[in-house]
Amino acid sequence: MKAPINEQHTLPVVEEQVTIRKRNRVTETLQAHTVTHEHDQPVEADLSVQTIRIERVPCDRFVDHPIADRQEGDTTIISVVEEVATVTLRLKLVEEVRITRDTATRRFDDTVKVRRQDIIIERVQPPPDTEV
After folding, report:
1. For 35-77, what is each residue's pLDDT tens digit?
2. Which residues form the DUF2382 domain (predicted)?
């Protein structure tokens, strides 16, 4: 027997569904700590020390005009004058103040502590099936 042409057949359809669940699990643990090492390291340096020497040099002579300050090597010379009343006005060089810089170098030797740090990282296995 033949099935009529207008006859409908229903076919079952299968549907699959997926559900995804996640969980956190510790797989490895790291520990880090630092170690500090100290050692003595010698240092050397040249240190300069300046001293100032002041010397007063009496001149006691007359000059025609003020004398400007001047430099002779490491020495600065400042002329000190005074006016002296006479029939004519003249300048008398009373003294010169000489300021000299002396530089001395001395050796400086000492030892200083120098530190250096290292970091150490260790892997630590967690207990089995540990969840976070």
Report:
1. 888 989 998 998 888 899 999 999 989 999 999 999 999 999 9
2. 11-119
Distance CA 99, CA 60 (A): 19
Region of residue 71 (left: phi > 0; alpha: psi -120 to 50; beta: else): beta
Contact 39, 112 (CB under 8 A): no
Q: How many domains does the chain have?
A: 1
Query: Within a domain: residue 112?
Result: yes
pLDDT tens figures, 113-132: 888 888 888 888 777 766 65
| Euclidean distance between CA atoms 129 and 111, whole angstroms | 55
Domain with 103, as residue range(s), is 40-124
Residue 106: which of 19, 47, 35 has the closest Cα? 47
